[in-house]
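Slide 14.
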Amino acid sequence: MRNGIASGALLDIVSRMREIPVEDLGRLSLQATAPETVSSRCVVFAEGEILSFILRDPPAAVPGMLARVNKCIADGLWGMVQRVGVPGELLLCGGVVRNAGIVKAIEAHRGRPALLPAQKQYVRALGAAVFARRMEQEGGA
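Slide 15: predicted structure.
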């Protein structure tokens, strides 16, 4: 996964394919005992791999499949974090981190808990509003 949009899209796809509400994906993934392997970082190819899990006989266990999807997303996000570095605390924001499985996988990479704001999906919008207000006050808008 290259960004949060693709990550959210993949979660939506999995939610529809398995007929599981997207808000339940993280919780269910935490029940996994044997995660499946999703090797693709491309949403289209990952979707194909997930479909193969569903269609095989017997179908893959849902928690294991979800855990691997979450880990795949977290691996991609962690790769981006590694490029810029984390000098101190790591704040996770955006709707995708409402998924406890993704948060757990990112924290596993880091080796310690991340900061999680109460309204994770609104942090960027609030930051943009604060920035716009400052620009207006400074006469730059």
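Speaker note: The chain has a mean pLDDT of 84.
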